[in-house]
Amino acid sequence: MMDPWGRERWIDWIDWDYDLAMDRKGMMANPGHPGFRRQMLARASRLVEEFGVDGLFLDITAAWENDPRYSVYEGLADWVEEMHRRHPGLLLFAENHYDLLWGLFPIFHEWRAPIGPEGSLYRYARQTYYLAHPAPGSLSAGVHEMAWNYPEQRMARPELTIPTLAIADNTITKHGKAAEQVIDNAKNWRQELPEIARQA
After folding, report:
1. Domain of residue 176, residue span
2. pTM value?
3. What is the number of structural domains in the chain?
């Protein structure tokens, strides 16, 4: 991925380890690049065909730059269209959003409750807890360092957010009862959508 001046876009945030230092070791990839999109299609299709998964989570979908070579959004839209053509009925699940993505993905996990006027995301898509939401017992998410100290104010509104269960290495073996409680609570959950989601 390039910025509008044609410079390579490198990661500039703290993620994936616990040193609290900027992780500038990786370059952002652009799904608009034909070669990269072919690679994404091949790898994603392999997961479906070889392992039989019925859904795929695509990380960092909200990342966007005005890349002078390839459109990030159009490349992502082409990837989604081709995945649906190859694998009808496959659930494509995205991380965070901007409004153009509402027509591509039916479900997002959000860092916070969705931005947008009056919860307008919910007219087009749904939301689950973020991948940093901690697993019962250990409070690890298994994949995201923020889970150890996940601030309450970052929790999405529970009446809008489809419950999820994070599973880390010892969730089932050591914290099975706590995991069962999360499942039991989810069985009684009812979504209360904002008015804008009910408008025609």
Report:
1. 34-198
2. 0.85
3. 1
